[in-house]
Amino acid sequence: MPENDEDIALVPEPQTWNKKIVKMLYKALAQGDTETIVRLVAADLEYWYHGPPQCQHMMKILTGESRHTEFKFKPRSIMATGELVITEGWDRLKAYWVHVWTLNKEGMIIQFREYFDTWLTVLLRASETGDEFPVWQTDPLERLHRSLPDLVLAI
């Protein structure tokens, strides 16, 4: 616990920690570091997928069904808001993906939403008013290359 104002400045925001944890996960996946993966991801991870059935690459990697060499997830952008970390990546015109990771207060990844070849908008709903504010949207340049189904995620 911080003891004074100077210590408080050294304690990162939860979003900063969460973003760092997700970056550590992608690095561990790339290196095949199962020890780190097990340490970062809850054993009872809640998983949700939207996209073509043959593109559930991340779940296959997390369950050990396939190796990270079959499909490489290299995030092009990472954004954190509260307990969520949103990553986005693409492999030229072959595949476009968005991952939404939810972390608990201890920094454990407890939920994973994977969107493949989907145009995604994330809205943050204010609990007091019910108003919704866009916090993240698929890279508009990706939309120029092909037609993607639209999906809105309200959090």
From TrEMBL:
Coiled-coil stretches: none
Protein name: Wound-induced protein 1
Source organism of the structure: Fagus sylvatica (Beechnut)
